[in-house]
Design a protein that fits this description.
The complex is a heterodimer. Chain A contains ten helices and 14 strands. By secondary structure, chain A is of the alpha/beta class. The two termini of chain A are 33 Å apart. Helix content of chain B is 78%, strand content 0%. In chain B, helix 4 runs parallel beside helix 7, helix 4 runs parallel beside helix 8 and helix 4 runs antiparallel to helix 9. Classes of the chains: A alpha/beta, B mainly alpha. At the A-B interface, helix 2 of A face helix 1 and helix 5 of B.
């Protein structure tokens, strides 16, 4: 498997605080990689190391199989990125602003129109950006990342400030990029639902350490779903399922949860409840989500100051 | 790449006060001296020639306006990055920090040369106009005037580099402007003492208005040495510096 990003044993310390602790990360080429973690987990720090903004204390980074050191800049030609909030020169127009990246990377000026077209900002080509809303600024920053169809896109919270329609547009765009251009998308976000809908691979960073890294389908396959049953006598129903070796959990006197249930089993289980003489008030299937997995792995989100 | 970066930095000054300041600063100097000349009805021009007028313009420029203009233009060029997280944007592009440092320094110098040329051209134009209105004198334009123009634009390099480093390093605009104002005030006190060597802000005036040719040369040599040394140190520092904002 060809890797677009290969991070080996990267550590980073700010003052006395270890922000990244021997992190390993492998992003397959052509994947959409969702990079998750609580605030202060070290996501932004790792992204900044990938982009050469910060130096790591130890370890190595390979981008498109090329070993990167802090003095390298050439590899950035093949990267489009958006880090945190948009960094725009508000007194310039989108055309002038995107022209900066074009000039430095030696891209054709036509790529400005293409990128603005993708993010639906063509109509604002020559308007100074100080009049733009947050969503519009985010679109321009995204257009900058997309300039020249880079091989690797590194995006930190790319849907920040976008309305639901805009988020959907961007989600479709990011999902289609690997197929259309062969690009790899490395995506950091707090929106777990967005990641679940977009990513093919997922990595979860917690307190500076990688907790999980896998393809999304594999990861979700390992997670069990459940079936919630609301009945007048949950205790008796629990005993009924116990005799059939079906694991369950009593939530309340009327609420029973059957564990590790597949969606295809729901109909049969509901029929069983009724045939056994129980009254079934409500039956609800709980699909395993990335959110439930995330919370299981890292616990409730705790707010910590970002190291940088 | 350096040429590209200078063009980009020039683009970033679009719709800013950079160009307006380039014209306004020297024209203020001219206006002050012109009003003084008209107040005296041009008597000293008839007695001592236009060289006095040139000299008073270059003195006010070197004493006061040029150091302040340097503080303003370097603060403006670097402030653009500080205000908009521009450092982060620029450093994610395939460029080196030291190239960006040099590009900004060169552009600041270009603006300064532009301002000096505005002063030269406007002074010459005012002399032609005053001659037409009956105020006449000798030495309308001498080699010394051109020489002073050249000297001041070289002697200012040390101050330009110092102010550029301060503006680059500190986000708060008070730092470069405060330094500029305080150091400019020190020119008055130190330029005529034996300690002028230790204050780079005095080099501009010494290079143009000093009575001793040796001091003029020394001011230029000091300025070039400081510029070279500080630029090398800054570039070495920038080669290892992280962009944390």
């Amino acid at each position: 498997m060809q890797l677009a990003i290969e991070v080996s044993n990267i550590s980073k310390q700010f003052d006395q605080k270890m922000v990244l602790d021997k992190v390993n990360l492998n992003v397959p080429q052509g994947s959409v990689y969702g990079f998750l973690g609580n605030n202060g987990a070290g996501k932004s720090t790792l992204i900044r190391i990938l982009l050469g903004l910060l130096n790591s204390k130890s370890g190595e980074v390979k981008i498109n199989s090329q070993l990167i050191n802090s003095r390298d800049v050439v590899y950035k030609n093949s990267i489009g990125c958006l880090v945190d909030s948009p960094c725009l020169y508000f007194h310039l127009t989108p055309k002038e602003y995107l022209g900066i990246t074009c000039k430095i990377k030696g891209l054709a000026k036509s790529s400005i129109d293409e990128a603005l077209e993708i993010v639906n900002m063509s109509a604002h080509l020559n308007v100074p950006m100080d009049k733009f809303s947050l969503g519009m600024k985010q679109r321009i920053a995204l257009a900058n990342a997309l300039l020249g169809k880079p091989k690797l896109l590194i995006l930190d919270e790319p849907t920040n400030g976008l309305d639901p329609a805009g988020m959907k547009e961007i989600r479709h765009l990011l999902k289609s990029l690997p197929e259309q251009t062969g690009a790899t998308v490395f995506l950091s976000s707090h929106l777990l639902d967005e990641i679940q809908k977009t990513a093919s691979h997922v990595g979860i960073l917690h307190m500076g350490k990688m907790k999980v890294e896998s393809s999304l389908s594999q990861l979700m396959g390992q997670q069990s779903s459940s079936l919630d049953l609301i009945t007048s006598s949950a205790e008796k129903l629990k005993q009924h399922f116990f005799k059939q070796n079906i694991s369950s959990q009593l939530i309340s006197a009327e609420h029973l949860r059957l564990n590790e249930v597949k969606q295809s089993q729901c109909g049969e289980l509901n029929r069983q409840v009724i045939h056994a003489g129980f009254d079934l008030i409500e039956s609800r299937f709980n699909q395993a989500t990335l959110e439930s997995l995330f919370l299981k792995l890292v616990g409730s989100p705790t707010v910590k100051a970002e190291a940088c | 790449m350096l040429i590209k970066l200078i063009q980009i930095e020039l683009l970033k000054t679009k719709r800013s006060l950079a160009l307006l300041m380039m014209f306004l600063s020297p024209l203020m100097v001219l206006l002050i001296n012109l009003l003084q000349l008209l107040h005296n009805e041009g008597k000293y021009i008839a007695e001592r020639g236009w060289s006095v007028y040139w000299l008073s313009n270059s003195a006010l420029w070197g004493y006061f306006m040029m150091p302040l203009y340097i503080a303003l233009i370097t603060a403006l060029l670097n402030g653009t990055e500080h205000r908009s997280n521009g450092w982060r944007f620029m450093m994610t592009l395939p460029i080196k920090q030291k190239d960006l440092f040099l590009a900004k320094l060169i552009l600041a110098w270009v603006y300064l040369i532009g301002a000096s040329l505005v002063l030269f051209a406007s002074t010459l134009l005012s002399i032609v106009c005053l001659e037409a209105f009956g105020i006449s004198g000798t030495d309308m334009l001498s080699v010394e005037v051109i020489q002073n123009l050249l000297y001041s634009t070289i002697a200012c390099l040390a101050v330009l580099t110092i102010q550029h480093v301060v503006s680059w390093r500190w986000k708060n605009i008070v730092a470069p402007l405060g330094l500029g104002v305080i150091a400019t005030m020190s020119i008055v006190q130190l330029s005529h003492t034996k300690y002028w060597h230790f204050n780079p802000w005095t080099y501009i005036l010494t290079s143009t208005n000093s009575a001793e040719p040796a001091s003029q040369t020394l001011a230029i040599v000091y300025s070039l040495a400081i510029t070279l040394g500080l630029t090398l140190v800054a570039m070495h520092w920038l080669g290892r510096r992280e962009v944390s904002c």
